Amino acid sequence: MSDESTYRDRDVPDVPGTDASDALPASLRAAVDALREPAPRAPDALARATVAALAAQRAAVSPAGARPATIRRRAVTWAMAAAAAIAAVGLGTGVWRARGTAAGGEATIAAARPTAEAPAVASPAAPMLPAAAGTAALDEAPRPVRFTLRAPGARQVAVVGDFNRWDPAATPLARGTGAWEVEVPLAPGRHAYAFVVDGSRWVLDPAAPSERDPDFGRPRSVTVVGLEVAP
Amino acid sequence: VTQPAGETDVAPVGTPDACLDAELPAEVAHADVLAARAAGGDADALRVLIARYHARCLRFARNMGLAAEDAEEAVQDAFVRMAGALPRFRAGAAFEPWLFRILGNRCRSARVRARRWGARAMDASVLETVPAATPDALAAVEAEQRRAAVLAALDALPAEQREAFLLRYVEEMDYAAMARTTGAGQSALKMRVKRACDALRARLAGAGRGASDGVPPRAARGSDA
User: Fold this and answer.
1) CA of B62 to nearest chain A CA: how many angstroms apart?
2) Which residues in chain B are contacts of A40 at CB distance < 8 A?
3) Which ipTM was obtained for this model?
């Protein structure tokens, strides 16, 4: 529990004075006023969006209805979605895998690297397609994402990220055959995460790109779920 | 509790408590109630929702750094995804954070695809939608120039800070709604907003001191009009 509170405190620190100073600074009022100006829009933009959304609503509320058709000003590159679907089938799995290794018992992130025996791993930038690839572009539903970490000496491993409020108690990994793993449903989009080993060590995923937390400066891994599916 | 249906000129939006049981016309119902109705198949409720939020969503997409065409496409995409996910919308849930969460994802996706962060010039579309050489056209151009200067400052911010700043001060969300929208904790969001304010103040002040003539004079754009 102490580890849990430690991580919560580190990731979501109190920011003294922000409540009291939350009012918009006077020097930025003109800037915000400019940003509040309505954006120009094409005369038919609202109508196109409405027609497309109504079709999506009919299809969603009445599953037997026609699939929604998006109305675009530019050519729809369905070929890209089809190619992505073929690529996803080629992966032979319905689960996008975030996979890496870490030396158990040692606080060394640098030594971690993907294992040779690991199954095929999709690039973090690759799309994760649900079973019905043809409807993926219209689906905001969470996709199952498998996080895997090789940490043979670890006693416990958890994944923390923006999807579980960086709570090390929320998503523990289970010890599998040769690696720790867990499957997490993630909404399409970009997600930042890291592994917490034995409740105290912050371990990046060596199979994924990393960045620094813009708020607190801590390194973290990044994955993107399902973005390229949409044409 | 009932909402006086006639008092809609100033705020044609009810509140969830006021209209959950009141069967108000769609035009005056709260967005959360409209979404619940739309989830039940009410097409009028969805039309009103889209009409109510389209301009705001488009503004947000533009402020997130998308070019005009990309912004319109991202907004349409967001509405389509929202409508397609309506069966999962729970009655009593907050619609607006949900919509902006979808829209934020669409904007990030569009930026990844288009690689159009930064490099913002005055948007020619403002000239397409306003007749040239009229006071309205000149005012629109000046407004767009002001926006361009602010957007250039926004472009220098990390994406998370930019989104947090826009949600807080332009879309005027409270931190609870922002947390539902972004998935980040409220303390982290306050930190992002504070840092965004500090950076914007410094950048805009620097631009004002060092380049009071940074915006091209109107005469230089005379050929546009």
Assistant:
1) 7
2) 68, 123, 125-126, 128-130, 140
3) 0.73
